[in-house]
Amino acid sequence: MKKFISKFYTNLFLTNRLFIVIACAVVLFMLSFFFPWLGVVPQLFFWAFVVVLLVDIIMLYGTSKGIFSRRHTPERLSNNDDNLLGVYIENNYPFAINVGVIDEIPFQFQKRDVWFKTHLQPRENKVLNYILKPQKRGEYDFGAVRIYVSSPLGLLNRRYNFEQAQTLPVYPSFLQMRKYELMAISNRLDEFGIKKIRRLGHSLEFEQVKNYVPGDDYRAINWKATARQGSLMTNSYTDEKSQHVYCVIDKSRVMKMPFGGLSLLDYAINASLILLNVAMLKQDKAGLITISEKKGTVVPADRRATQLNKIMEALYKEKTRYLETDMSLLYTTIRSVLKQRSLVVFFTNFESMSALNRQLPYLKRIAKFHLLLVVFFENTELKKLSEEHAEDLEAIYIKTIAEKMAFDKKLIVKELAKHGIQSILSAPQNLNVNTINKYLEIKARQKL
């Protein structure tokens, strides 16, 4: 009995309508002192209010399980993407109700106003959908779903607690990966800004002899097959397959810089996942290495169906560290893991020429054995400062420093090119497109 009473009081909440009615009763009693002709009206109003209140309590608590609810979630969330979640509600009361819903979302979102209102007819059910956009990878803990129900009288709210504590992992952006995957399968990557690279020649692998269609290279016409078939036939070539593509991700402090709510490491991880997926669709083998002051994750190159899941699991909990990258360790790791010439896409960041000069000797050694592509980031905030109009001496000083640092980035590109190292200088938001563009260019020009 005590447990029931305790639960009754714990889950009973007063509404604004109740306080308005009480205020009206108080006003009537006060007016009865000045206007005796009111007589018993205040008392009748008060006792009518008590009766209605009791009826409201009976309506709300007369059904033991008046509401059923559960949370609808995907198995995992995609980082920096809109993820659809929902709360299912079913009304078991024999009358219409007003419902308020609180879903206890993870603390990482720092939201305390996730409150939904709806109206349910008898025996009706609804799904209230909402969007969450995580900004960090890792594990996100959800709490209970709390439902507040009021009857048509609306004097009280009864709370229902549905303990649905669950932990959802937030993976690198697999939703963006799927978009690029569908485009790659249908050869529509140009819709995302992926450039079509003109081929300078044929790759090493012959695919088939097919009927000539307008637009085919006339130099590829197979005259022997044409003579046999009596119609123009042309040779079809495909990209050389089973090349090794490795993404090497720098986890040092230079990758902790934030941009648009994400760190540079998150941008590099998302771009790596998309690039490796496209590489596997192009029949290449995909591999992964993470590095900081010590060796991180190593996933040898492969193109089995389970390879992408291995890479996602490896990138799931990667975090930036606070020391500089040990480039000698990276060099020895690449030499021991990569057994054949491969495309090595190194995601890192340089803010000055001195930072490049510390790493350049090791980059030159790696480039002797593999095709090295260094990907680093354009500082968009500095670019904005350099383009602003300077109105005073302090603004001129800031603009000059910003222009110098932006110019250093361009010098880094030239310095790498001087040593035969390809590079991409990209704004974080354009990283996916620029990286895939470069990969397709390398494939088309047979540089690997």
Automatic annotation (TrEMBL):
Q: Which InterPro entries match?
A: DUF58, vWFA_dom_sf
**Keywords tagged on the record:** Membrane, Transmembrane, Transmembrane helix
Q: Which residues cross the membrane?
A: 12-38, 44-62, 259-281
| Superkingdom, natural source | Bacteria
Coiled-coil stretches = none
Pfam families referenced in this protein's UniProt entry, alphabetically: DUF58
The DUF58 domain covers 208-372
Q: What is this protein called?
A: DUF58 domain-containing protein
Name its species. Mucilaginibacter calamicampi
